[in-house]
Amino acid sequence: MEEATVVPQPVIKAQDLNLVFGSGDNAVHALKNVNLTINKGDFVSFIGPSGCGKTTFLRCIAALEQPTGGTLSVNGMTPDEARQARAYGYVFQHAGLYPWRTIAKNIKLPLEIMGYDKAEQERRVAEVLKLVELEQFGQKFPWQLSGGMQQRASIARALAFDADILLMDEPFGALDEIVRDHLNEQLLQLWARTDKTIGFVTHSIPEAVYLSTKIVVMSPRPGRIHEIIDSPLPKERPLDIRDSAEFIEIAHRVREGLRAGHAHD
Ligand SMILES: Nc1ncnc2c1ncn2[C@@H]1O[C@H](COP(=O)(O)OP(=O)(O)OP(=O)(O)O)[C@@H](O)[C@H]1O
Question: What is the mean pLDDT of the chain?
Fold first, then answer.
């Protein structure tokens, strides 16, 4: 029997994207001629040296920065329209939970602002707490949770309005290795279950290789895409896949890409 061909559905499309902060002598060319298509269900990691524009690219998608050239579409809309349509959830490096609100109330806040009725707010909070395995912690305050649990709560908050796209800016950068491994595993399971499209910024080669279907290797300022590596790893990834020859080979390619990217300067 012939295998069904899956037609890729572009979700995020950047064409010749440029962003220059400031002008004259103070101009910073943060993104230069970035061309990238992210398809539905992709898990795309962005890796590159500090200051190469990873966060800026994510912020452009989220309409938090305005590109100075090129085009960018999100679910077929402009980033501004996509923001208004709640097309994505955004997870920052630090959990950013309000200390005076319980975990459930933190997750509820954007839902309140968006005008969901009380019953729907409760239903969604319960659902996302379950997804990140924090069902028992809704009534706790952030300070009563570990760093990893707080980060899971912030992921739950981003998932609460059930956007198809999740943008994550180094969400696990501040956590220790073991907690990070665990959260990586959980995030992959969540991605497999929900079929979301994920854009993920990281500094860690193993994290990028473990999580992604596509690894975007960026080069130093002005931020350009040096290479896009498609991962042949299966969707189901136990942690020990990191010891496999295939994994090590991709990690090697990413490292080489990062080195070669540096040579542009
Ligand atoms: N609002 C701004 N005004 C001026 N320059 C900015 C602004 N935001 C970012 N930059 C500059 O743009 C460049 C890209 O920054 P960005 O934060 O996207 O890099 P990054 O790859 O995410 O870095 P890191 O890995 O350190 O988080 C940097 O040189 C940064 O200093």
Answer: 90
Angle at 55 between CA 83 and CA 176, to 5 degrees: 115
Q: pLDDT tens digits, residue range 127-186?
A: 889 888 899 999 999 999 998 899 889 988 988 878 889 999 998 887 788 888 888 998
Q: What tokens does 215 get?
A: 């690894």
Q: Whose CA is nearest to atom 7 of ligand 1?
A: 21
Residue 260 identity: A
Q: Which atom of ligand 1 is nearest to the CA of 65?
A: 1
User: Which residue has a Cα nearest atom 12 of ligand 1?
Assistant: 30
In this structure, the residue with its CA closest to atom 4 of ligand 1 is 21
CA of 53 to the centre of ligand 1 (A): 6
Q: How many CB atoms lie within 10 A of CB 213?
A: 19
The tens digit of pLDDT for each residue in 21-35 reads 988 888 889 999 999
Spatial contact of 53 and 33, defined as CB atoms under 8 Å apart: no
Percent above pLDDT 90 for the chain: 62
Whether the CB of 54 sits within 6 Å of ligand 1? yes
CATH number of 10-87+163-262: 3.40.50.300
* Cα 223 to averaged position of ligand 1 atoms, centre (Å): 9
> How is the chain split into domains, by residue range?
10-87+163-262, 101-160
Q: Give the model's pLDDT for residue 80.
A: 95
Place of tokens 């709560």: 153
What is the 59 CA–ligand 1 centroid distance (Å)?
10
